[in-house]
Amino acid sequence: MARDEQLKERWELVVLKLSKQFADGDPLDLDAIIYLIGVQELGQFDRKFKKDHKLDLMHIAICRLLEPYGYYEFDYFDEEGWPHYITKEQLPTLKAGEQSVLMKEAIVSYFLESKYIE
Fold first, then answer.
1. DSSP class of 50
2. Burial (CB count <10 Å: 0-12, 13-18, 19+), residue 109
């Protein structure tokens, strides 16, 4: 199976499973999935987050997702349990479609690694 085709199938599986679990089947978009990964990485599931914390959660997720690509490296947890990352390499300038593919690829890898999908 072609790599693009496999990514598309796996991405659709991630969206389907997460949408059933967190959105009553309404399809989640890329940003919503990144947010959920941020909450997962923070591990504070029983709290409500304000808008600025939601952006912080998405930043955590992006750092975690792009860490295997060499762009970020985990540094430490602060006193409130929030993970912090350092930038190892600047992200290349990507077109919107290329950014989307990179993030989908990273998300699929994240969920394969955690055995959420196979």
1. -
2. middle
Amino acid at 40: Q
pLDDT at site 118: 87
**What letter does residue 69 receive in the DSSP assignment?**
G
Residue 51 has pLDDT above 90, yes or no: no
CB environment 40-71: b (16+ within 10 A), e (fewer) = bbbeeeeeeeeeeeeeebbebbbbbbbbeeeb
pTM across the whole model: 0.91
Count other C-beta atoms under 10 Å from residue 72's C-beta: 20
Give every CB contact of residue 73 below 8 A, 6+ residues apart in sequence.
67, 85, 86, 88
Place of tokens 């970020």: 72
Indicate whether 64 pLDDT > 90: yes
